Amino acid sequence: MLKAADALDDAGFDVRVVSVAHTPWATAADTALRATRRWSRNWDVVDYSRATARGRQIFTGARMKPAHLLTQKLGSSRAPAAVFVRAYSRAHDELVRAVAAKPADLVYGGTSGALAPTAEAARRLGVPYGLDLEDFHTGERSAQVGELNVIAERVERLALPGAAFLTTSSPMIADAYAAKYGLHPRTIHNTFSLDLPEPVTSLEGEPLRFYWFSQTLGAGRGLEDFIRAAGHARVSGELHLRAGAKRDYLDELLRFAREAAPALAITLHEPGGPDTMVHLSRGYDLGLSGEEPTVLNRRLCLGNKIFTYLAAGVPVLLSATPAQAQLGADLGAAAIVYAAGDVAGLAERLSCLARDSRLRVQARIAARAAAVRRWHWEHPEDRGALLATVRAALPAVSR
């Protein structure tokens, strides 16, 4: 949504942004963005963070919990919309009020918690709306918390049919929505503007350097498989992790790495702001995207980390989920694709990379070429597609 705001502002639209604040590092990143965006003068924040809006945090939690309990008691199929939307989005009412507080010609909203608020605010304003389905929301959670998937479906059935347009981040997520609801989101990949370093011609004698980032460091992201494979292959090198870390998980991961891959040095970095993420990804031999296929959405999605790596000229290591395997075929030498859980197979690929520095150079060249050819935000099928979609949805008087 940040890239959407930037693209629309650059194209001459009068952009107003409404966002939430509840996570300290993300709030700090937003503060930095305010100094660099023209549209930030029209940026309204719904704050329910513990540190700066304790009262609202308590109030929204006190509203969400009984809504969720009532939805469970009545059953997701019988709960009224006024209940289940508040069970699904903690700041539903606050977002609706903030968006509808000022006139607009179109409302465009993204992330699961913004679907119903976007639709309701647009109805209050009497304008069309679009929704960004970055994930397949009814397949985001495991069977153990399947009730939330059922509530997500009620929210989608409420909000999606009335949208003037839908966008999503991968072809397979688009196909899943088409199969479930008969709707056809336009795929706009979560690519990024290029920030390519100078091409390398030799990496002889340079240590192998691997990179992974996310908002939080936790289980289920393929890091354990990678560490096992590095140890099995006796690969020495550096694994750099950038995320907010859960202390207990980090301690366990470091202990595991010391035992399984003692020659792999692990460095933890603080999360970076959105404008810095591509630059911070430069100079690595592989960017890791080891999605585990136990959750449906993980099989269908193409995460932003993949395209961040490519925009920095970094080859990618992809677990062979259906979506990532399909992308890997397009990337060719810029990608290593392995089956999740196949430690021996991954170890063999890492061993080849460690033995031959020319392969590392060739992979970086291939990543650079793939990014320039297709996988960058300024490509007509991404930024251009977004602008065309928005223009088509606006009332004729506003175009």
Question: What are its keywords?
Answer:
399 residues, alpha/beta, Rossmann fold, 2 domains, six-stranded parallel β-sheet, four-stranded parallel β-sheet, 17 helices, 47% helix, 16% strand
Question: What does this protein structure show overall?
Answer:
- The chain is α/β, with parallel strands linked by helices and 399 residues long.
- The protein contains 17 helices and 12 strands.
- The chain has helices spanning 2-10, 24-34, 54-74, 81-88, 92-100, 115-125, 146-159, 171-181, 223-232, 247-260, 277-280, 296-300, 304-311, 322-331, 343-355, 357-373, 380-393, and strands at 17-21, 43-47, 107-110, 129-133, 165-168, 186-187, 208-217, 237-245, 264-269, 286-289, 316-319, 335-338.
- Strands 9-8-7-10-11-12 form a 6-stranded parallel sheet, sandwiched between helices. It has a 4-stranded parallel sheet with strand order 3-4-5-6. Strands 1-2 form a two-stranded parallel ribbon.
- The two termini are 21 Å apart.
- The model has no long low-confidence stretch (mean pLDDT 94).
